[in-house]
């Protein structure tokens, strides 16, 4: 099964080489890898060039965008620019972060999942982060049926059905909700342990949390589900401010009449799906 990888990279000189090395060691190599050098001011471009010289399937794309390292729109904007230089002759498509180390059989396993279970539209493993004592510990704040945005693989049929990735905060939630709306399933493989080299949330701040609240509004969650989801996030991270900032972002988006990421029909499906999940957990 052929697959393409797109890697948005902004000032990733510390980690990028490890990600590209782990790709080069895959038992099932990609057909194409596009590394999008997004306005980097460090040695990111040099690292890409080195690997591109060694591996014919790796190419570089230089783009210019904001210097601010905000989750959401910046990374998907870079991803979409990388995707634009590729054709659609792939079995599955991968959006990959530039700060990961993948196990050698990662994509061979993903290909097997898609081949053997055609109803699966999105697949991935689990993220592990290094503790102070050097151990690699599972860090998966979402449910086990969620694939982290850092390493998402989509079948071509699923990717086209959901209309691509939304260029906004919350893209890695709305993609799975829309996949389910179109009758695709999400598959997470516990055997695929991905080393995440940058701690989760290292680049998140108050502005990012408010964008999270805005995302909940634009995904048509409604106030009740937004409050429950924000409360859960705040409880897990033991930070009340997360709840406050999320709701501020939600109400600001409502006041500004921010455009929705999904249709009314998709929004109704999303609210029903979320509420049913909440009921199963609490009842």
TrEMBL record:
InterPro entries: Glyco_trans_2-like, Glycosyltransf_2, Nucleotide-diphossugar_trans. SUPFAM superfamilies: Nucleotide-diphospho-sugar transferases (SSF53448). Residues 5-145 form the Glycosyltransferase 2-like domain. Keywords: Glycosyltransferase, Transferase. The keyword Transferase applies. Belongs to the glycosyltransferase 2 family. This is Glycosyltransferase family A protein. It comes from Galbibacter pacificus.
